[in-house]
Structure formats: C-alpha cells, structure tokens
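Inputs:
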Amino acid sequence: MNQARTLFEKLWNAHVVTPESADRPAILYIDLHLLHEVTSPQAFARLRANGIPLRRTDRTVATLDHSTPTLPATADGKRPYINEAAKAQVAQLELNCREFGVCLHGWDSTERGIVHVIGPELGLTQPGMTVVCGDSHTSTHGAFGALAFGIGTTEVGHVMATQCLLQRKPKTLAIHLDGTLAPGVGAKDLILHIIGQIGVNGGNGHVIEYCGPLIKALSMEQRMTVCNMSIEAGARAGLIAPDDTTFRWLKNRPHAPQGAAWKKAVESWRKLKTDTGAHHDRTLYINANQIKPTVTYGTHPGTAIALDAPVPAPTNVMEQRALDYMQSCAGKPMQGTKVDMVFLGSCTNARLTDLREAAAILRGQRIADSVHMLVVPGSEAVRRAAEAEGLHQIFRASGATWRVPGCSMCIGMNGDLAACGQLVVSTSNRNFEGRQGKGVRTVLASPMTAAASAIAGTIADPRPYMEGVANLNTPAENF
Amino acid sequence: MHIQSRTAVLADENIDTDRIIPARFLTTTTRKGLGKHCFNDWRYLADGSDNPCFPLNQVEARNCTIVVTGGNFGCGSSREHAPWALLDYGIKAILCSEIADIFRNNALKNGLLAIVIDERTHRYLLNTPGISLSIDVREQVIELPNSKHIRFELEPFARHCLLEGVDQLGFLTQHIASIEAFEAYHEAEAC
C-alpha cells in the first residue's frame, strides 16, 4: 500500500517504539538530546537518587548558555556571574556532565554557544531526527526536517534514562508561503507576521510545516528563524522539508556523515517531504509580497504589525492593559517610538547572517547617543567568524557593545537587563511583561530594524538605511 | 483523587510562564521553594509588600486551591519551574478553556491538575469567582454548588498515572526491551 504521508507523519512513524492506543501514548525514540544548565539539574538529581545511568551519552550534548555572563572573564580568570546561584548552576552542569559522561561545550570549548545555534552548527542536528531539549525554542531544529520540540525537566529525565518519551501524536498545520520577501524584510518579519495572523495560540496542539516557494528560497539561517518562533504561536514544533539548501549547509560539518555515508544519508533525506495528496489537519496560505518590516506593540508575540501600521484599538481590558504597559498608542504606528536599548542576539537572530544584516546598516554610522546597544553572537563559532570579517569592529565603531556568546537579554537570567520603563528593540523571541527586566517594554524586531532603530534612536524602518547595501540573503559558507 | 475548594480567578488571557515564575528565579538547582516567587512581579509591589491589585492576594482568594484563568494559560517557555512554583504556592488545579501544550504536560506530570473545560463553563466560572467546586479526577467531572456536574476530558494515561500514582519513568523503564530492539534495528540500518 502506498499511502500519501506528511513530513511529520514520516518523522513520527520512524521513531515509534510502541504505538499509541486509546489508553496510552506512543513511546517515541529520541535521536538527539541537548542539555543546558537551567532545565537539567533536577533531572540529573533524579538519576543520581535512583542510581540510574544516562543511557545514551553518545546521543546527548550539553552547553552553557542561559546563566552565563556575556562579559569576558577578568584577567585572573573570574567570570562575572550575576550571583552565586548562577555560578553554582553552571558548576552543577559541569559536575553532572563529568559524573554522567556527557560531552559538555563548556567555558573551555571553542564550540560553546546557545544550544539552538550550536546543534545545527556542529552538524548534530540532521534531517529525519527527533531532537529534544528542555527549552521551548528547540523548534529551531525543525528547519532541517527534524522533529524537534521543547520538553520539561521531568521529560528530560525520561530521555536521559531511556532515550524515549511518552507522546501523543499532535495535529499538523501546513502554512504555505508564496511570494518573495522585499528588501529590508527578513525571516523575522515573516514569522512575526505569521504569528500576528494566526495568533499566539494559533498553533496549539499542532506541529507547523512551513512549505511553498518562499520557504524553498530561504537560507538555512532564515529557516531557523522561522521555525524558532513556532512555539510563539503555541506550536511545539516547526518543520521544513530538507532540500539542497539544507544539504549544502550541513555538508562537512563536524558531526555530519562523511564520504559514502554522506551520500547514503542525502539519498534517504530526499524522501523527507510531504507527499502529494497527504492530509494536514489545517492548511493556511500566506503571500509574503506585502509583508513590511514588522514589530510588536503589545506583550505577546501575536501583537505583531507592520512598523508603519497603526496600533489596533484595544477590544478589552487586557488589551488596554498591554498597551498601557507598553505605552503604545492605539491609532499611531510604532515607528518613531523612542528607543532606550537595542539587543541583537538570541537563538532567533544571532547567527552570522543576522549579524551581517545589522552590520551592513551600521557600517560607517553611529548609534544614537541615547541608545545602548548590545550585540551578543550566538556561539563562539559565530563570534570567530564575525570577528574574522571585522563585524565586531563595525559594531564597536558604531557605539554598540560586543559581547561573548549566550542567551543574554533574551531571557535576562545572567543579569543582561534593561531598567524599569525602558524600551528595548530586541531581535529575540518573547515580549512578555518583565521578560527583559521588571517593567521593561520589549519590541520584537528583525536585525535590520534593530540596527536602523539604534541609529535613529527611535523605532525605524531599515529600508532607507539600506541604499547601497548588497543583498545579504546569500548562504553563509562558513557559518 | 478529589479536590475541593472555592475558586479564585486570574482573568487575564495568555498568562505566560515568565509571569508565573520570572526567569531570574530559574537559577535554582532544586524543585523546592519556588512558591514564594510564584507570580512574583505581579504579586508583590516594588517594596516587597503584597500588591493589593493581584487577584490572589485578595482576602476571599486566600486558601483557594482551584484557580480559573483566562485563555491560553502557561504559554511561553518549557520551564517546569512554572508548575513547581504553582504547587508550592498552594495551587492544585488550573481550569481554563485552553492551556498551552508544554505547560499542561509539565503540570500533569507533577500532579497539578491542568484541566481544559468547555467555553461555556469557562465563561461562567470566570464571571463567578469564589464558588465552591469539587473536582473528581476518576469520574472526570467538576461538581458545581447546584450539584450540576460538568464533564471534562483528561488524557487517559495522565489520568491513570494521577489516580494510581504511576511513575512514568518506571513505566518507560518496563519497556526497555522494546527500546533496545528499536535501537538494534535502526542503528544496524544506519551503518
């Protein structure tokens, strides 16, 4: 029998150890488990308490990213942690990895970085895999045609002990994307636009498959930005079928298959696509031609509009409260709003191409005196590549601060925060109340909009700043 | 498994995990003691005193273990610290017409009843704070003060684990032979 299947069904079926039934979920096999310091300690503690070994250390990789300072170590080697708890949490992961035999990309590793940046970079993330991490932005890895989703700490323990999870099969939502992204409009604008359309809960219960000619034309970095924010619409995972763009990007990465194994792998990865006639639970069509630089005006990522569009009038008390918190004015566009800080970083937008896009706008320019801009590369590899191109000098010359890799202001656990009442234009993924500090107003935006806003000192359209800037959507050769 | 309480209401929609437990409290390496920071930046004023505007600080909300929330409760991150904090704060059940996937999953694994109810009942409960409810997990019903019973859906395995105290890791471990067979088959194929 030759039944048409979706990409999701192919990935799911290939990892079912025991199928689901009415009274119990499927046991799903996990190919790659990524760990960081925040959501793993209690899971390691459970293993230790019960004398259980970590079953597959060869399928487990850890890094330090959330609680880590982005200021470099002092001359005597001390890291400027925000507090003793953050320092102890990092030390705990170091100890746990030693004790359980897990590969850790720690402070001494040249590959350390944000977990969702280094997984792909190292070629650990591959098409056809199941990938999990105690982190909701694990959806990023779906850009490679992997079924990748965030889990809680109890489940982190399940994977450590058994390499499996108990899972109910989710529904699928296909988002078919047509058209092209206009100059000055990036993958971030696209995904903000999508979330604005379907809502912050529009993906609940579903895995989103992004497809259509626009997706085919996107680089891997852009695809990762799109999949990364699937969770901001409530979808646990985003998926994109792998293609030649994927294979070119992955080839020769440290953990990618080599030689004959590579050829064989690509041959099997080419089958990872939704068959003609396969059924999705929902399908949505979006044409991207009209998408403009997009920002948020409220306190969740669903409040996304073009930066020159008027902020919608509130329809209830909660929406009014969000506008009050943000000091956004109904009827007025976000463009022109005074900016205090700009954050360029996070697992959404801290890859080399993101930094290039911002640097192209900042080259030869000064950021406004009233703006403090933080640039935090996604990984040590991104940092090295950016410095080799001189991007750090462009950022510094413009008045921005160049830091060492980590999650930084996206979650603010390491103390990289803004002050109460300040407005931050941020390339990160969440604009929740207090996410970047108590009372801080976060406006999500693309790296291009962030750079333009830093120069203007107000939320600014990047397009006027882009005259003479070359098309940067070419694939990065060396990440 | 029975829970009886008056209800408190947090009517806001999209109460995200950062509001439930702000990220700066996630540097802990244990599950304990997060209750004092539950809803921290909503619950306390800048000087550390109770915010009189926070619904769960109201006298009538004290000791309520069932909280009715606005839609899409628990959206955002996968931090299991959110249900740990709610439980430690004394909350035993969240009732809502829509609960974010990862939060619901994390909650049920910790014995916090994250229960999805129909929209009509949800609207009624949002507008009627302080009524006494009884939640019966075995029968999957909520009993209202007028003895009316509202049925709710609960994933059967989660229900089984809650009722029988089944440890899901223990359950998975019983299937280790199947897992080994899966690995042997697929890893041989990959070579």
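The longest strand of chain B covers residues 2-10. Flag for discussion at group meeting.
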